[in-house]
Amino acid sequence: MSDFVHLVKIPGTDTVEGLKEAIKNLDEEARELDEKHAEQARLANEAIQDLNAKHLALRATLLMMGDKQCREVLQELPKAVLEKLPRELRDMVYTELYRGSQDKPYEITDGDSKHPHDPLHEFAPIVKAFHEPYWMDKEEVGHEFAREAVEVWYKCAHLSIHIKLLQPLLQDDDGVLYEQWSPSVRTCNFLRKLDVIIGPATLPIYLEESRPSGQAVNIRQICRSLSALLEEPSVAQKEGFKLHITFRWAMEDEWSDYLKAICPVVYRLKAQGFLVSGSQAYGQSIYAVCSHFGRDDCECEPWQRGDTSWHILDVFDWFDCSEEECMQRIEEEKDKIWE
User: Fold this and answer.
1) Which residues of 10-48 are buried (b: 16+ CB within 10 A; e: fewer)?
2) Does the predicted TM-score (pTM) go above 0.85?
3) 63: part of which helix (H) or strand (E)?
4) What is the domain partition of the chain in residue ranges?
5) Least packed by Cβ within 10 Å: which of 11, 222, 315, 323?
């Protein structure tokens, strides 16, 4: 031990006080060295982060350049189709691309979050839960190919819409597929079939209480909306247009009043060449216990009305007969239900 102390002997450490001072100085030098290393590590880390950021930026630039080149290559085939094939054959290509892509009607909804009665509301029709394929994306296949593909898609697609959105749809010029990547194409110029949902006829309670004539107003609105198909702007091709009307009734609805009012409009549509069919479903409200019932701050009724469960009835088509026979059917069915 004495040999080790002799080898590392530091001036001024002959006394205890000197030794303590030397240790203090060494601790200070070690702390400064640690701070220096920490600063160097921080600077090195910042330099690494800066390099990584520059690397990512360069890589993104390269990917964008490569993506642009890739898109140019991908658009060579659509360009060749446009240049080499006549429109009739191109439509066959678009139809084949569509084939097998739809197993149930696509619902058209309003994409505008504002209420329809809001003066700033602008109808923005969208196809609910629809993911546009690449061959209708103008960024992927070019504007002209995408536009023609969208036109054929409208001819082939099976779409459904609630009666309250029918008039806005007929007046819309951009199309239900219009978005950032899809060209603007008026849906009704190419549409060949459509399901229109009417009902439920039951009005909100506050309307029934405040407006005794609310049902009559609702019926007039429905007839006016359905009659829009007879006017302009409407669907471009009325002859052979397949219009299916799905009636949804609640058990308490006065459905016969609605049918009798709608019937003349339907037969005017048929006279213009529309192929009109109809089906109906009855709905039952689903009730659930209020989750807050029993609490001091809850003023709800114990049972709250929720969604409606719809049951399609396997009955005849209302409109596969003459107008007189249709009106007679309505009266007969009404009498059966009252019995």
Assistant:
1) eeebeeeeeeeeeeeeeeeeeeeeeeeeeeeeeeeeeee
2) no
3) helix 16-74
4) 2-71, 87-338
5) 11
